[in-house]
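re: that complex we talked abt at group meeting.

here r the seqs, copy pasted straight from the sheet so there may be weird spacing, ignore it
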Amino acid sequence: MNTEAQRCLLCKKPKCALQGCPVHTPVPECMLLYRQGKLDEAGEMLLSNNPLTAITSQVCDWKQFCYGHCVLNVKQVPVRWYEIEQEISTAYLFKYKLQRRSAELAGKRVALVGAGPVGIAAAVWLYEAGADVTLIDANERIGGVLRYGIPAFRLDKKYCDAYETMFAEAGIAFRGGVEVGKDITLAQLQADYDAVLIGAGAEKPATLHIPGEEKAVQALPFLKNPQAFNLGKKVIVIGGGNVAMDACRTAIRQGCETWVYYRKTFENMPANPLEVDQAKADGVQFKLFQAPVEVKEGGVVFRDCENVVPEGGGRVVTRIIDGTDHFVACDTLLTAISEKPDFGMFAGTSAQMNEWGWPATSEAGRVQGLSNVWVAGDFILGPKTVVEAVASAREAVKNIMETL
Ligand SMILES: Cc1cc2nc3c(=O)[nH]c(=O)nc-3n(C[C@H](O)[C@H](O)[C@H](O)COP(=O)(O)OP(=O)(O)OC[C@H]3O[C@@H](n4cnc5c(N)ncnc54)[C@H](O)[C@@H]3O)c2cc1C
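got the structure back, here u go
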């Protein structure tokens, strides 16, 4: 990677970091350290800025973020910073030991609900600032979507294991298998801790609102434990996001003939284009302009769609074409159309909810109406990305530190 590092122009105002990266990774500074062979210093800089640097450098859609903003994009090929970041941060993560860097929050107790990217990043920062940290998760192990959603062929679980080891060695308490709102109330946590940060993700599946929908398998439970499902021979996946791509690529690895049916074009798919290409390379087949209208025993009824420009111009809209219903046989229909957060844990609390039923918060994610509760990540942003979850956790943690 040294030749690649030499290509970096070390911009004074690096667009890759300032505009392209939600956590503003200090790219030129780290690049310089890398060139000088100061790998631990570079690792330290990366990990203190973003405790999940070894993971985001693998799962980020870099064309949208750092790579896509590299100044060399204009006339040459951008620098593959994410590969350099991965090299530095992976080596550093596996030898990293948490340490108390300040006593700023000494004696303060903080509960983190959700041990995904938000919980992991916040645990690192708050522990290092001296707080007594407890992580609570409905799942038995640490990682959130990183462990229970993104398949191992894309992200090795050794990365989640590294945080588990790091936290256990530091004495960070982990209460696995505890669902807040069911096994313990939010009010109880508020009473027991000085601050509560909720990073409970977005796991509630959106529905298609079509007859027979209950026959479909939801993609998230499938991805959590693929071996528990017998999908049969032919699988249809509905959706065009990252979850749909992970579901189809997992299904095809189980030996299924796998199709993705999507309402619009490849360009409209919210999934990382690289993942779509990888799904194609795996042998997944795609059928575009198809909307499901009914799930039946042994298959799905689809209706054709088309993109039309409204009269008088404006944004292209996708229209369903009446009279085009056709039955497509399959053994399993996997749905991956979107997810939303579950705000059930706020029931019975004085949290203020906005007109859409979401918690009203300050910019830093402090929940209005509750004295010591913050929210971050997919739980308040809706389904986004790992790096955006870390960025929002950082804002919440800063505000918690100022408040405490
Ligand atoms: C299949 C899939 C693939 C993805 N691929 C990518 C990708 O390639 N790149 C990318 O950047 N992003 C990707 N994403 C998005 C990314 O994983 C999320 O944006 C990120 O994990 C959000 O982090 P989080 O900490 O907010 O929530 P999560 O990772 O969802 O973690 C939330 C945690 O909270 C716990 N929890 C929920 N409710 C409760 C409760 N009541 N009590 C206790 N614990 C609770 C859950 O068990 C979970 O462990 C993907 C998402 C999915 C689902």
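couple things i noticed - The first helix runs from residue 2 to 6. The chain has a mean pLDDT of 95.
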